[in-house]
């Protein structure tokens, strides 16, 4: 930066020409619609308008950031969040010098987005807010997984002013904790994850379409309706057998088949083209019907991924809101002001009249991209022969080395803590009051029209719909609760209210200058701010601020209303001149409204305590309705199932006993209830042994019959083979050998079973005879024979 300043002083003539050409080139970077609108105002009109605006001294409340300071507990944040190191201070000085020179050389361009405030109200350079981090999850290693996580995990919050970047840029740790942010917060987190995963990623500050900035996908094709391309698997040709008959020759023309397939593809392509043309016509008609008055002016931040690293074949954009990738020539991206990563900051010096289609993303080209720090690792473009000869001059080389040495500056390390994403994405909210909590209500179920209620340790936000007083939003900031010596409950010791912000919808029955749009009660500062609705053809709205004073002084005398109590800004001061009486009545009315709002806030706290108490009671005394088909948790069904299992088990035991009782079939032949005699006992023994002997013989005969059958079939097969051996094919021989092998295996098994049966049959017979002699039902009658 010092060398650039010396060049301006030493070579004024050359620098002026270069600055003029540069300004002319930069002027083309804004979209064509913006240039037409800006060209309608002359420089003199701009100066007069600036003077008139400077004369207006109306203190307007600043728009709150995405996550207000009251909701961020900065007491536990590390020191790097609250202060700047010497190297960071030096970097901020370099950034200020760079911004001043840029504004001097390019007065028509918007200010650079270099050093916004963080959550601790400390200015930080945007590059140091990026913290490259590799997540320890396989799903977050590729760009699509990171983009889907950021778009699904965070909640989109629109920019306070859609025409300029935000004044605050919070750390990714704070954004992850609160799970919401604007496009700059989304892009910073996504860029940090992509850089950690090895991608060449950058945050881009530019201009987007209305659909892109508002996350409007109504005009996009639903991905669920797109049919995926079917992959046709080639059928594997079966290898022809050696002795198979050749199929007849295919006489169909391959040329005719190819032409037919080509015609079908062309017809299908024509249908798809016709469908897309119809869709584009519908989209164009919708866009023509609703033109965007801020087209080309809406500020948006997205992520650029350059080709090269991680085998990325071509550069592309990522919209952090949706997680979708876009081509760098997509019409949604209307222009680029600047981009940055964790190492450097670049300004776009190319023409954006044709959106981003003609941009060359070679960051090493200082003509197209003006960089802030020299320590960039981007290669420069190849030089021509004339430029190469000029660069070979020793004096120029020494001057260039000296210039680069003065301009080089290492980027400080990121002030953000290590980004940590726990395996649980979802967090459990406790039932304790004054914690992070969101409640949603049915609109028709409540009289006050409350549809949503949000709470943090220091804030409470309420959203309304359909109220007769047109109240739509109420935000309350609390201070720390005063400590008391005695133990008191939350109800008896409420939190002090510091600020109440209320917003109202438009009431068509009132003029815009008398219809309040926003009402802010600064209770701690004893001020009340009013902002009225804007007229249809105006860009500013009337505002008033009242300074609250006590009605009597220290001596008990009434204080007279003076003009300095009310500071007002009227859009048309000649139309409405409010007298002191009107201002006094308005202030008295606002005081009553302030008391009412405080009372409603206190009632809301009590209502939340009652809801939480009711939820605790429901959780303690809950009775689940369990289906009768859920046999594991339904007690009645469980008892019935156990009883049925017990009955079935007993029945199974009886059946097993009946199967093992070898006398049961013979005892069933006797008359029921008759006492057994000795003759009958001997008869039962003989009959049981005879039956068992016969079964052993039958089993042996059955095995013998199967053995003989297998032998006969094997002999027949062998005889057939002897007769047809000459004419058999190799396949038939293989089948014959396989059959013989299986038949011999069965014959050997049957032979082994028969031999084993012959060995075990006498032993089994003797064992049964011994059991019969020891059976208690026959033992007393068979003692004589034992």
From TrEMBL:
GO terms for biological process: cell differentiation; flagellated sperm motility; spermatogenesis. Gene3D superfamilies: 3.10.620.30. It is found in: Cytoplasm, Cytoskeleton, Flagellum axoneme. Residues 693-724 form a coiled coil. Residues 425-627 form the Dynein regulatory complex subunit 7 MORN domain. Residues 384-401 have a biased composition (Acidic residues). Residues 1-37, 382-410 are annotated as: Disordered. Residues 299-372 form the CEP76/DRC7 peptidase-like domain. Its main location: cytoplasm. InterPro entries: CEPT76/DRC7_peptidase-like_dom (IPR056290), DRC7/lobo (IPR033551), DRC7_C (IPR056292), MORN_DRC7 (IPR056291), Papain-like_cys_pep_sf (IPR038765). Residues 674-782 form the Dynein regulatory complex subunit 7 C-terminal domain. Component of the nexin-dynein regulatory complex (N-DRC). Interacts with TCTE1/DRC5. Interacts with DRC3 and GAS8/DRC4. This is Dynein regulatory complex subunit 7. It comes from Heterocephalus glaber (Naked mole rat). The gene is Drc7.
